[in-house]
Design goal:
The chain is built from five helices and four strands. 25% of the residues are buried. The chain has helices at residues 12-15, 21-36, 39-55, 64-77, 111-122, and strands at residues 81-87, 90-97, 126-128, 139-143. The protein is of the alpha+beta class and 147 residues long. Helix 3 (39-55) runs parallel beside helix 5. A four-stranded antiparallel sheet has the order 1-2-4-3, covered by helices on one side.
């Protein structure tokens, strides 16, 4: 399977043309939860959502790369777009579009939802390394299991 030579992403101005009320609602929900609960409880809650989403999916068997591709298909069904880059010690997953991006400003813990989902689906630890700011970009490091 060959990869496309280019990956495209919408600019912030174009993203605003496609309103996603769920992102705003998610951010408001996290605002309320953060006002009422300690940070660790909010983080636990978003991780639990990741576990529950993964529990509703078939966990693939096979080589690590295949499991990553299947996990990215699940992200695609949720509205995300990501690609995988192989590295010496594993893989990097880079997102070009994230359905949770609207909640990232002020709530970086939302990235832990995707981190947990990917870890559960791939079957190995995944560490988020997302870029935050005006134009958030997802990034997840997947370490190859040691033999």
């Amino acid at each position: 399977t060959s990869k496309p030579a280019y990956a495209y992403a919408l600019t912030p101005a174009a993203e605003r043309l496609f309103p996603k009320a769920y992102g705003t609602l998610l951010r408001m929900l996290l605002d309320v939860l953060s006002e009422r609960l300690p940070p660790s409880a909010v983080d636990d809650a978003v991780r639990e959502v990741g576990h529950r989403v993964a529990a509703g999916q078939t966990v693939p068997n096979g080589e690590l790369r295949y499991r990553i591709d299947q996990a990215l298909a699940v992200l695609g069904e949720l509205g995300g777009l990501a690609e995988t880059e192989e590295q010496e010690d594993g893989f990097i997953i880079r997102g070009a579009s994230c359905p949770l991006a609207a909640a990232v400003p002020g709530h970086p813990e939302i990235c832990h939802l995707a981190e947990t989902l990917l870890s559960d689906l791939i079957g190995v630890p995944v560490a988020e390394c997302c870029q935050r700011g005006d134009q958030p970009r997802c990034c997840f490091a997947v370490s190859a299991p040691t033999a």
